[in-house]
């Protein structure tokens, strides 16, 4: 997988960009997966992983000059752990300590990927958009979903992806983790084009 991405990473470098990946996860059970990511990365991208509560971490750490933020099943985690009352605070800390610290004049993209349920995460995607607007940011957003075992029309969230198959074959050494073969989540992509 990493071999196919090397030309893309070289292009970023030629534009003066230095790709860096920081993964934050409270659950250290993910460390074997993180080790696999380290094995697949090339020497053109720096990766690091932090085992901490993201809400706590963002109360004491700032991330400067980021241009992409991925929230992968974060909102449903707040539901699953009985902390949904903290989601607004989490959004505020994201804005203060990451998004407002983006490079001036450069776009910023947020990708939210979470459970396709209007009661377990997806229902709070748009509240991040409102928080961004309240902070003086403007841009656009788009909504998407995978058509996999759709049970009601509420799951038809935005535009349907043309396929729900994985883009890459899973390496055989990851089969012990029982990865899914099809995608079933919903996404929102937010592009921030400016700040007032």
Topology diagram in text:
Layout: H1 2-14, E1 20-24, H2 31-40, E2 46-50, H3 54-60, E3 68-72, H4 74-80, H5 87-97, E4 108-114, H6 125-134, E5 137-145, E6 159-160, E7 186-195
Parallel strand pairs: 1-2, 3-4, 5-6
Antiparallel strand pairs: 4-7, 5-7
Helix pairs in contact: 3-5, 5-6
SS field, number of helical segments: 6
Shape: globular
Strand content: 15-25%
Number of strands: 7
N to C succession of SSEs: HEHEHEHHEHEEE
Rounded to the nearest angstrom, the distance between the terminal CA atoms is 40 Å
Instruction: Label the structural class.
Output: alpha/beta
Strand order of the largest sheet: 3-4-7-5-6
Q: Low-confidence stretches at least 5 residues in length (pLDDT < 50)?
A: 1-8
Biggest beta sheet attributes: 5 strands, mixed
Q: How much helix is in the residues?
A: 25-40%
Backbone CA Rg: 17 Å
Quick recap:
The protein is an alpha/beta fold. It has helices at 2-14, 31-40, 54-60, 74-80, 87-97, 125-134; strands at 20-24, 46-50, 68-72, 108-114, 137-145, 159-160, 186-195.
Give an overview of the whole structure.
Helix content is 30%, strand content 22%. The chain is α/β, with parallel strands linked by helices and 196 residues long. The chain has a 5-stranded mixed sheet, covered by helices on one side. The protein has a two-stranded parallel ribbon with strand order 1-2. Strand 1 (20-24), helix 2 and strand 2 (46-50) form a beta-alpha-beta unit. Helix 3 (54-60) packs parallel to helix 5 (87-97) and helix 5 (87-97) crosses helix 6. The longest helix is centred in the N-terminal third of the chain and has 13 residues, at 2-14.
């Amino acid at each position: 997988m990493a071999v196919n991405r090397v030309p893309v990473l070289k292009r970023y470098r030629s534009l003066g960009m230095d790709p860096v990946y920081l993964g934050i996860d409270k659950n250290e059970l993910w460390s074997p997966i993180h080790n696999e990511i380290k094995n697949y990365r090339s020497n053109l991208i720096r990766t690091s992983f932090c085992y901490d509560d993201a809400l706590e971490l963002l109360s004491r750490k700032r991330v400067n000059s980021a241009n992409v933020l991925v929230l992968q099943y974060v909102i449903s985690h707040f539901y699953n752990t009985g902390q949904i009352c903290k989601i607004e605070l989490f959004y505020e800390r994201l804005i203060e300590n990451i998004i407002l610290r983006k490079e001036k004049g450069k776009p910023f993209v947020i990708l939210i990927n979470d459970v396709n349920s209007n009661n377990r995460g997806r229902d709070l995607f748009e509240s991040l958009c409102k928080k961004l607007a309240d902070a003086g940011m403007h841009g656009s957003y788009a909504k998407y979903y995978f058509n996999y075992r759709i049970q009601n029309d509420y799951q038809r969230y935005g535009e349907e992806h043309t396929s729900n198959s994985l883009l890459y074959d899973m390496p055989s050494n990851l089969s012990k983790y029982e990865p899914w073969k099809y995608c079933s989540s919903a996404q929102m992509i937010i592009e921030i084009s400016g700040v007032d």
